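Much of the work behind modern protein science is quiet bookkeeping, done one molecule at a time. Below is the pair of lines this work produces for a single protein:

***
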Amino acid sequence: MRISILIFSIIVSVLVVGCGDNASPESSQSAETASPSIDAKNSFMEGLAYYNADPPNYSQAAKYFKQAAEHGNQDAQLYLAALFESGLGVEQSWSEAVHWFKEAAIQGNLPAQYQLGLIYEKGEGVEKSRSQALYWLTLAAEQGHASAQNMLGWLYENGADGQPNISEALKWYQAAANQDNPYALNNLGWFYWEGKSGITDKEKALNYFIQAAELGDKDAQLNLGLIYYQGDGIPASIEKAQKWFMRSAEQGNAYAQYNCGWLMQKGEVENASPYAARYYFELACKGGLEKACLELERQSSTHF
């Protein structure tokens, strides 16, 4: 999960860097001092070609990324760190991954700062450090990194300062939500649904859930399904409940899959059948939801 997010962030970073990487004609930089930068950029682009090849050649990509990284190219440092983290094309090494993430982060690379924050929060390859996690995440968040903002909101909500800091959590969730971060929108939905900020506003919560769900967040989709099924604060709608359960289930949410099976089993939706119900219970069971497995066992014993 984290790697996929990182790769997306890397691509964005490369595009941004690429737009402003041309030296101005007025530059007084000598050919001797400019050449390492040019070599680093060329090495990075060579590595990127191997990285994006079909199929990818990660070992060759790592070779060229390292050449560029050692000459200070922050994008190469970021990609190289990701390869060491995942063990693609190189021997997996947390120490190397952290080293190159730091090299890029020190140069102000937002995805690297975000990734370092996650690493220190989880203690992967380093001693777990909440202070270091907050330091790197805050650097990225203050410069507009939406995932870092959402992560900060989560940390402050759960006691980053030793006890929950709701106002700080709300601040960062809102910052991320303003950038259409679906996870932050879902978290804001819970904030207002449960009145964590001191104000319960189910209309506002529903609006946040809908925004997150339409952006594809499977947890928000599950939440909407439950809200529409129960009719808590809004008119109940089995049709809308099924719609959002189905969307969440299609993304592998085991609870949504179970709920789809349950609706099918109760015959509360169109095209309901015991076969369809069993199909969704099987998906949920494979997804690790114990009560779905128990339901399948109950059905099997009933048939004998």
About this structure: The longest helix spans residues 31-51. The radius of gyration is 24 Å. Residues 12 and 83 are 17 Å apart (CA to CA). The mean pLDDT is 87.
